[in-house]
Amino acid sequence: MTGTQHGNDPEDEALARAAVDALIGQLALAPKPGLPDPRDLTARATRRDHSALRWSARALLPGLTAMAATARRTGEPGARLRADLGAIGRSTEHTVALTGGGHRGALWTLGLLVAAAALRPGAGPADTTALARQLASHPDRRAPRRPSRGSTVSARYGAAGARGEARAGFPHVRRALTALVEARAQGATEPQARLNALLTVMSTLQDTELLYTAGPMGLRHVQAGARGVLEAGGTATEPGAAALSALDADLQARGWGPRGSAPLLAGTLFLDAIGARGTARPAPVHRMP
């Protein structure tokens, strides 16, 4: 890799495809308490159409490919690369908006992880998240100077938010990856293992979306519900599955969506996919029966 390399390496698109497949895998998982999943096509009505979310997820591919290529050519997680990633991200957000929108949080998480993976191909999850942390530590000096809902809520409640999560090296992604591996080792099916990983994130994440819609008490309620599923044995056990069903029904009735957790699960599945093979080939998407 050199700074004079032109064009995209095939690995750049492979990393981007692994990231998009991880996002689609997250969308395909069910039942996700309070989050869009395939049931929205039939029995449930939520604010976002699930098929549209799957369609718009694919619109991330060119932008993520460009992020990987830029990282590979730049070669270090400095301020220059951070600025370039921000510019690509804003352009990608515009493109995704034309296809129905969504996935802003996933673009932030996956963009940093894809760039980090391109900087050091074959690195393990700890090194990849450490590189992403270095990237996130640089301010995006070209970003518009307007507060977002997430930044406003973060300031009000002292929550880390998406930026804080990245600047800490994605601790929830690392915890979720551990939960994913442990659940598989204990005999859980792939969907059950992924749901355990999601609940691991939900159980401790200071989700700014939840804080905005439900306040601190609502956030604690959701965190306690997620912990309850895990403490009951996780989704592979009958008590855990029953607790998951109850939590799902509760959040649907309240209209609460722990939306900050979903992008972090996508990031977890991305690191799992590239780490399992030492390459960017994605893992197959598993769907609930």
Automatic annotation (TrEMBL):
Catalytic function, reaction form: 3'-dephospho-CoA + ATP = 2'-(5''-triphospho-alpha-D-ribosyl)-3'-dephospho-CoA + adenine
Entry keywords, A to Z: ATP-binding, Glycosyltransferase, Nucleotide-binding, Transferase
GO biological process, one term: prosthetic group biosynthetic process
A GO term, aspect molecular function: triphosphoribosyl-dephospho-CoA synthase activity
Enzyme class: transferase
Family matches, as Gene3D superfamilies: Triphosphoribosyl-dephospho-CoA protein
EC number of this enzyme: 2.4.2.52
Xref: InterPro entries: CitG
Disordered: region residues: 132-158
Protein name: triphosphoribosyl-dephospho-CoA synthase
